[in-house]
Amino acid sequence: MMNLIENFLLNTIRSGTPIMFALIGDLIGQRAGHISLSVEGAMLTGCCVGFAACYYTDNLLLAVLLAALAGAFVGFLQIHFNISCGADMFALALAINYFCSAVTNYFGASLISKSISGFGRIAIPLLSEIPLIGDAIFNQDILTYISYLLPIVVGFILFKTKIGTAIRTAGEVHQVAVAYGYNVRLLKYGAVMTAGILAAVGGVQLSCAYTMTWTADMAGGRGFIASALVILCSWKPGRAYMAAYLFGAAQSLQILFQLLAIPIPTNIVTMAPYVVTLIALAFISMNKNPSMPEELKKIGRPLEIQN
């Protein structure tokens, strides 16, 4: 039983880590008043570019950097065409995501069934020996350790620094940010491109640490789920732990049921993470005082930025 619990915790964290990166990224974008639905495409691109770099160069740092650049480019496409060209946010995001799917399927076709060494697990002395939770939490890859700190760092930046205040102001009443001399256009560009970068790094973790494989469309809707989980977090970084690992736990049920030999159809278990997300969102929607940034309430109307 102890081994089952340890395996469940281990898979919960590993499944939740890509979601954590994408969730925090989109949270930054939404705090700036822009829903970065293209994080699905950015994550998928990160999966492909990161895996390709690992396979051809065996350089993990290069894999992360190239994936981050690709994710930044995806974020740039979304924010540029939305703000500078006036394209509809949702239609544009769908187009970008389909574009990323087509491009990665084409260029990643030769990578299917290839193997890489990827990111190995690094045990933290003493902490990894804690009964039950030590191996699951403190014997992970470096990207997972970074994800542990990500909500804390982003929360500090958003709520304790000048740039964070500027980002949140741009997402509330951007005219106020303009009045204080901030370049709102630049803030929004930076926030959405950061969302793309973090989602792409999450994609690297998915393909180069968690699965060690590349398959077509392997993001599997995780980017969309991450955007939805931002609402579950009430746009507060500290709640990302709960949201990301809730999804990870639901996804880990499939492995747990297999280990316990419980005869539940695979398709039903596969649906579990998405059903859990829907139920959680239904409960959070009952909140009469949501903390949604004001600019998000204007979605659907053209953005008119004064600078």
Note down, in words, how this protein is organized.
This protein starts with a helix and ends in a 23-residue tail after the last helix. The protein is globular and about 60 Å long. The protein has helices at 2-31, 39-57, 60-84, 89-107, 134-138, 142-160, 162-172, 174-179, 184-210, 222-232, 240-259, 266-284, and strands at residues 122-123, 139-140. The mean pLDDT is 88. Helix 1 (2-31) runs antiparallel to helix 9 and helix 1 (2-31) packs antiparallel against helix 11 (240-259). By secondary structure, it is an all-alpha fold. The longest helix is centred in the N-terminal third of the chain and has 30 residues, at 2-31. The protein contains 12 helices and 2 strands; from the N terminus they run H-H-H-H-E-H-E-H-H-H-H-H-H-H. The chain has a single domain, classed as ABC transporter involved in vitamin B12 uptake, BtuC (Orthogonal Bundle), CATH 1.10.3470. Helices cover 69% and strands 1% of the residues. A two-stranded antiparallel ribbon has the order 1-2.
